[in-house]
Amino acid sequence: MDTNKEQETVLFSVIIVAAGNSRRFVEIDSDKPTAKKTFVSLNRKPVWLHSVEKFYEREDVVQLIIVISPDDLTWFFRFYASEIDRMFLLVVAGGNERVDSVQNGLAVVRRDVDFIAVHDAARPCVSKKAIDAVFRQARLDGAAMLATPIVGTIKRIYNGQITETINRENLWEAQTPQVFRREILLNAYECRGGVDSTDDAQLVENIGYTVSVVPADRFNIKITTPADLTFAETILSHQNNSVLY
After folding, report:
1. CB-based contacts of 34: which residues, under 8 Å, 6+ apart?
2. Which end of the chain is more exposed for a tag (fewer CB within 10 A), N or C?
3. Residue 173 forms part of a structural domain
4. How far apart are CA 66 and CA 153, in angstroms?
């Protein structure tokens, strides 16, 4: 381990992606912003705010960027003005796909930061310990992400029927935050062309960099359906009591 890299002072920008349309979450025929998973209440706070506050508390994070759907910008500024001011949030309009939204966030990243972290607003339960670990690994290797090994049996399904059972050996599920040295991530997005990826690490891999995997706990869930909120409430309650945090 390179202790010099551990001890040097580095600065991070964090891009929180909250521009999704929540197709699997929004109620049928509902177009209300509050129906989107990142805006729903979770332990008396919107989901996105839990995610942002995990990074706001860090001394090495000097810029917080949240990417919001263009359709929600007016609503977001009106209802969350105090939170935006308190945390010096830079609010950016998202794009058609996740990669477009991240790229819009990258356009406003400060030039003096060393690393950029990208985190899904729908992962409000990421722990301080996990963030510490992936930030530390990125400082050592230049690119790192949280992930968990797949433990269930994986089936490929087509038209409601199993077509293949997939060997889960060496298969991991990607999480966020994913953290990269600034120039690496910027280069990856500059070179992405028409590639549409739901994962920033893939774009970094595509330009020849190795991304280190930091084993994460299974509490860093992604809010995908309303049922996930119940689990998230329990996790956050324990974190607040320093059980899992």
Report:
1. 40
2. N
3. yes
4. 36
Question: What's the pLDDT at 118?
Answer: 98
Q: Model's pTM, two decimal places?
A: 0.89
58 domain residue, yes or no? yes
3 falls within a domain: no
Domain span holding position 167: 9-240
Please count the structural domains in the chain: 1
Task: Give the whole-angstrom CA distance, residue 238 versus residue 128.
Answer: 13
Measured distance CA(105)–CA(123) in Å, rounded: 18
E strand or H helix that includes residue 48: helix 47-56
d(CA 240, CA 243): 8
- Quote the CA–CA distance of 198 and 182 in Å, as a whole number: 19
Residues of the chain with pLDDT under 70: 1-7, 21-35, 242-245
Note the pLDDT of residue 245: 56
| Separation between Cα atoms, residue 88 and residue 180, nearest integer Å | 22
Give the C-alpha separation, 131 to 216, whole Å.
10
Contact 116, 17 (CB under 8 A): no
Mind listing the pLDDT tens digit for each residue in 98-144? Answer: 999 999 999 999 999 999 999 999 999 999 999 999 999 999 999 99
CATH of the domain at 64: 3.90.550.10
Amino acid at 181: R
